[in-house]
Each structure stands twice: as C-alpha cells, then as structure tokens.
Amino acid sequence: MANSTTPLREIGTELAPAPPGHEHGTLTAWIQDLIFTVDHKKLGFMYLGMGWLFFIAGGILASLIRLQLAVPNNHLMDPESFNGAFTMHGTTMIFFFAMAMVFGLANFVVPLQIGARDMAFPRLNAFSFWATFFGGCFLFLSYIAGPGLYGTGAAPDASWFALAPLTSRAFSPGNNIDYWSLGLLISGVGSITGGVNVMVTIFCYRCKGMTLYRMPLFTWLVLVTMFLVVMFMPPLSAAQIMLVLERFFGAKFFEAQAGGSPVLWQHFFWIFGHPEVYILVMPAFGVVSEVIPVFSRKPIFGYPMMVAATVMIGFISAGVWAHHMFTIGMDSFSVTFFAFATFVIAIPTGIKIFNWLGTMYGGKLRMEVPMLFCIAFLFQFLIAGLTGIMLGCAPFDWQLNDSYFVIAHFHYVIVGGIVFAVFAGFYYWFPKATGRMLNTRLGLWHFWVFTIGFHLTFDPQHFLGFLGMPRRIYTYQEGRGWEFLNMLSTIGAIIQGIGALIFIINMFWSAWKGKIAGDDPWDAWTLEWTTSSPPPEYNFEEIPEVRSRRPLWDLKHPEDPDWKFE
Amino acid sequence: MTESALFTIFVVAYLFYLGKSLNPPYPREVLEFPWLGSFFLFGSSATVVVAEQRLKKGDLGGFHLWWLITALMGLGFLIYTGAEWYHLIYHDGLTLSTNLFGSTFYSLVGLHASHVVVGLILLTLILVASLTGNIQHRHHEHIQMISWYWHFVDGIWAVVVTVVYIIGMQS
User: Fold this and answer.
1) Is the pLDDT of residue B133 over 80?
2) ipTM of this complex prediction, to 2 decimal places
C-alpha cells in the first residue's frame, strides 16, 4: 500500500534531489503529482473538486431552465436547447456531482476511519477517478459537437432517463444520445471499479479490533452503498450497450416494430435508477450519522438498528423500481406489489430518522454549522420521504407522475437531503483535510441563504404539480395560474445560487486564511481525528488497535472507556 | 457480482424476447447444441485446476504444460464459436439486426466470448511470464485469482448454454 511516488516535500532535499522540472513547489511538479497520484486523500480531493465543477455547470443549466420558466411564453431558450438543458442538468448533477461527492467523501474518509493506510487497490483508485472525470468531459464535449458553437451542439436531449423509442436512430438522428450512452458507459466503469475497491478495503483493511460492528456508521453506509454500486450500475451499462448496439448496428432491443418493447428499457433503466438514488443518499445518511452524535455529545442512538435498517434499505431498494413506471400500463398485481414495497422501504428509513432524533434528545446540542445543515436535513428529508410515500400510492401517481410534484419530491431528497448533508460533511471534515476551519460567519450566511433559496425554489413546485404543470415543458401559456409560483421558484433558484457561491468563496478563503484546526477541532470520537490535520501521506505511523466504536473517546477518557460497556 | 449483474440483464433480454421475433430465422431452426465448444471450455476448467496443483507442488514443467493446454482449449472454444457464427451469418442469414433473436443471441453470446478473449489474454500473459522464468511457486495465489476468473467465465457459459440452447431451442 505504499505510495509509489516520492512525496512532494522530499523532492529537492539532499536525500532526493529533484529531477529537472520537478523542483519543489513548481507548477509542473504539482500537476504531475496530481496526474500520477494514487493517494486516496488526493484522489478524494480530485473527486470532490470535480464534483463542485460539475455542480457549477449543472447549476448554470438549472438557472437557465428557471429563467426560461419564470414567465409564460418566454423565448429565452428554444425547445431543443431546453430539452438539452434539463437532460444535461439531470445527468450532470446525478452522475458527475452527486456520484463524485459519494466517491470523494468515501475515498478521503473511509481509510482514515478504519485505520488503513490507503485503499486496497490504489492504482485502480486512480483509474476509477480518471475514468469518471473523462466520462464527464466526454459528455460535455457534446456541446461543441454537431452544429457546435453556432447552436447548442449535440447535447443529449432525451431526458436523463433516455426513454426508448425516443432514443432510437429514427427519432434521435444526431449523436446526442451517443454522447450520453458512451460518456456514462465510461464513467460507469469508473464507478464500478471504485465500488469494488472500497468494498475490498472495508472488508480486508480494517485495523485490529475493528469488527464490522465497531465500524463508524459512515463507513457502514459507504459499504452498503458500494454494494449497491457494484450490483446495480451494471444494468445501466448493459442497457446502454444495448442502446449503442441498436443505434449503431441495427440491433433490435427496444423497437416495437420488430416485436421488441420500449418498456424493457424502462425496466432495465429503473432497476439501475432506483438503487442509484439510494447510492446517492446513503453516504448522506452516513455524514448525518457522524455529525449528529458529535454535536449532541451523545453516541448514536441504536447503532445495531441503524446498521440493520441500512442493510434492509439496501435490499428493499432492489425491489421497488417499477414505482417509476406506474403510468405505463402494468397489470394491477405488479402495481400493487411495487406500491407495497415502496411503503415498506419507508419503515427502515423512518427508524433511522427516529434514531437521529433519539440521539439529539437529551444531548447537549452544539448548534454549529455542520449541525445546522443536519437539522435542516432531518426536516427536509422527512418531507421528501412523505411526498415519496404519497407518490407511492399508485392512483396518486397516476395524476401526478411527470408533473412538477415529482420534481419537487426528488429535489427535496437530492438537494434538501443529499446536498445539505454534503455541506454538513464539508464543514465537518474540511478541517481534517486542510488543517483549517471553514469560516463560521460565512458558513452561517451560506446556510441561511441556501436554505431560504431552497425552500423558495421547491416548495412552490409541489403546488405547481397539483395545479397540473407537467415537467419538461419549455414554456406555458398565461392564465393557467402558474405564473406566480414559477416566478417564486426562479427567485429561489437565484438565491440558492448565491448561497452556493458563498460556500465556494468560503472554501477558497478558508483554505488560505482559515483558523488553524488542530487534530480534533470538534472533540470527536472516530479514528480520522487521531491523525494530524491534514493527515500525513501514510495516515498512521502505527496502525491503531481499537476496542470499541469510539476509539478516540477511549483514548481521551481512559477512566470511562466505551469498551467497558460492550 | 458486478459481472453477474451485467450478464443477468442480457439473459433477461434473451428470455423475455424468446418466441417474440417477428421474422425468421428462429432458434429452433438454426441452433445446434454446442457439444464441442462446451467440451473445450468445461475441459479447460479441469486442466487449469491440474495446472494450479502442479504449481503448488513446485512442478514448473507440469504447470507450463497444463496451463498451455488450458489456453489452447480456450482458443479451441473461440474457434468453435467463430465457426458457429460464420455458419449463422452466411448460411442462415442471422445477424445482430435480423430480428430480436439475433440481437439478444449475439449480444449475450458475444459478451461471453469477449470475456473468454480477456481470459485468454490473461492466460497467455501468465504463460509468457512463466516461460521467461518469472513465475515461481510463491505466486500460486496470484495464479489462483486468474483461474477463478476462468472458472467464472465457464460458469457463465453453463448459464448461456442452458438459457440460449436448452431453453431457446424450444422455440
């Protein structure tokens, strides 16, 4: 597991004189280090950096969408560009922002939390990153394809789920869909190999004494997430291979004229698509499960049930996919089955929410920025779950599928849930990664501006759904009663953008001038806080040995260690 | 697990579309049970086990011999598949774009064959490394990983034979 490149700080010393061009601190040395690095911490940074870049791109696309929809009969964007905008917004945010956050946080935190020096396969780790990054770049290359700079290129425009037969050669003659399938096939390989790597690391490289039942909850959730990644991303790859074969070689997978079935695409896609959203949300659960205990000064309530609930959610998530397909004309037995399964998955999720609340109850709450994001998460994720259950009632979905209610629901989960948890994770672990605290005042501004913006954007969209506004329309007539809510939503989007900008400024400013953090600024309990901030390249001088779920608590409180109560 | 999930989707597509092709050729008409190909592939799993055992005992000569036989049998399987496909394409007129059967047959069997090719490359690399003296007894665990991959490819072939040939030839 030793890093094969000479550490940057040793280049230019007497022991290792720098080759020409590699002089310590030069730009070329820094770039070469990044390109060739196999260190999980640096790769984690690169995933996270990539994620924020694509977040900005996706955010710009969202802003364009909202600006186009702010007033009726708007002509800011033509229909083709609009289709490209929402397709690219969805695809980018899910695959190149959220997945990058998942892998970035997992990469940086997991080896430190389990007392390992690096991932099991460091070079494979680097490959996974570059494959993911290349896939994202390839996707965006579509903007300068086709009509290129004179139009909006050949960006994919069949929505992020690319339903057949819209995606067949007959109905999508350009190369837009090919950029979509090939870009995601490439990044899919990156994700799958990354998933294998993380799983092997967690199973094989835990330090002595760390049984699975003593792992931090973030690591547990990442483990289940990676299990879902390796099981359920291949169906997407398979479906995309079929799509490529159909578009380029005339294969007949989804073509009704040949006796095929476009619905088969939907089954394959959603068999991937539903577990995918659990892949995105589980690390968010993990962050919240780390932050809430530390900021309530109480260990997590009901650790065994949290683990059990996580595993149950993982299993059940494989069995609910057709709740995205209630409106395609399935038989009532299937509809009932999938509705029922959707209700069942709410049970372990609810258990987790109760356990987080139970952790806070009776605790000594420290209302610092990470905790604020977690509290907002609890509130918003609960609402998201409730609207999800509403949609799980098939007759309700028959009215509201493909309306703005669905958009409101999933943005509540992804933004109100996942993005808020990612922010919490950043405020929590930024000190560990960089050695400096994120600025609290900027953090509070970020929190309030973003939260107000978030609610202003998405709360009205629930009502737009009720009022019948369909999704994916590029404009609407006046007199439908949708004008005011759309305008509110657009203003909210702008405010969210400002909030996100404050965060980006905070990150840059604090990395340069933030308060020095020290090893353990939050008085936390898991192994990553035993290292220096930032950790040395090798993480731990001596691989630690643990005797409980809170090894750092044991070290700090030898008179009252956890292992006495195990 | 990943690979199983990938193959499962192609298997599902094949089974779902069985009997639904709108035009010939149909499986029953053109498929013949792959006795020879299966003999080669399943046999090569046996020979690779023998090769591993030889390596464990330190018998490098025996390891070379049985590893070579394994690779040759893998190659034999690919040649058999190639001949089968030649016949299907040029004499029966079945291609990827002919009908649903063609699409699902070639994609599933092709996916498997591509995995055999990868396996064959791995086997050849190990053979070359071994002949140049770079593989010793102490590497037997690494070799075991490669043979596990080979057994996996074989297992997938068992599934493909069942689904494509046994079940498929009913329609």
Assistant:
1) no
2) 0.89
